[in-house]
Amino acid sequence: MQVVDKGLILRETPYKEADIMLNILTECGGKLSVLARGAKRKGSRMSAAVQLLTYSEFTLYESGGRYTLNDAEPLEMFFGIRGDIVKLALASYFAEVLEAASDEESINPELLRLGLNSLYALANTDIPNEKIKAVFEFKVAELSGYAPNVFSCICCNSPDGLRAFDVKNGGLVCGKCDSGYNRAADPGVIDAMRFIMREDIKRIFSFNISDASMRQLSLITDEYLRIHFDRNFKTNAFYKSLL
Ligand SMILES: [Zn+2]
After folding, report:
1. Which of 83, 90, 96, 106 has its CA 20 to 30 A from that of 122?
2. Residue numbers of the domain that contains 116
3. pLDDT tens readout for residues 34-69
4. How far is the CA of 146 from the centre of ligand 1 (A)?
5. Can you give the CATH number for the domain in which 10 is found?
6. 94 C-alpha to center of ligand 1: Å?
7. Confidence of residue 234 (pLDDT cuts 50, 70, 90)
C-alpha cells in the first residue's frame, strides 16, 4: 500500500551498504521507522530530503507494518541551524525529546507542530536559544500528559502568594507551603508558564521575560522534562557543554 505523509526526520541509522533507517515523526502516522534504500548513494535524488532534521513529504510503501521509502521531497531544511554548532546541538536535543515523547501507536500532530515551530525559531529568528529551549521543554511536557498546575498552589490550592515551583509534584507552591527545597518562580516565570500553557503553538514564543526570570524558568523546564520523562538526554548534556 502506498502512503503519502509529511514528517520531520528525528534520527537516521546506517543500515546495509547505502541504506539508511529513518525515524520520522509524521503528521498522520505518528512516529515511523522507514527504510530508505540507496539513500546514501552519491547522487541519490532523495539525499536532501532524507537529511536529519529536515521536514519532507514522503511517499512510502507499507507492507505488513514495515515502511520503505519510495520518494521524498524536502519542504523545509532549517538551513539556519546547520552552520551553527550550538543551534545544531539544541536542535538535536529537540529531536531526541520528540522521539522519546512520541510512539508508533499514537498520533500527536501538536508535537510535530511544536517541533517544527521550535526549529523554525532557532533557524530563522533572533529569539534567544535559551528561551526556545525552555518553551519547547515546557510544552512537550504538557503535550505528553505532564501538564503542571500553574494557576494555584498544589498544596493548599490558594491562587495567592505563589513563589516557587515543585518540579517533582508538578506545580506552583505558595509562600506558606514552600518547603524551601523548590525552585524559585518569580511573577515573570509564572506569567510565562501560563502563556506557554494557553497560547497557540504558532505564537508560543511571543512573550517578554526578564533575564532573571528567564534563568529561573530554564532551570525549572530543564529539570521538569528530565524528571517526568525519567531520563537524562545525552544531547542536552552535549548542548550545555558548549555554553
Ligand atoms: Zn499553599
Report:
1. 106
2. 79-241
3. 999 988 887 777 888 889 999 999 999 999 989 999
4. 20
5. 2.40.50.140
6. 34
7. very high
